[in-house]
Amino acid sequence: MQKERRPNKKHQHELNENIQRVEYLIINANNPFNIAVYNEFSVRAKKRNKPE
Predict the structure, then answer these.
(1) Per-residue pLDDT tens for 3-33?
(2) In-domain check, residue 23
(3) Which top-level group of life is the source organism from (predicted)?
(4) Longest CA–CA separation in the chain, Å
């Protein structure tokens, strides 16, 4: 029987940090500085995820 895969601790920690960051951005969505930061994240993510 295949063992259930669990994310390792480091990966889980990164996930938790990302979730907190997203929650923070949602809570502070109307703050212009955070909007700028969020837009920067989006641009980088799009560049990174674009297939070659």
Answers:
(1) 777 767 777 778 888 888 787 767 776 777 7
(2) yes
(3) Eukaryota
(4) 52
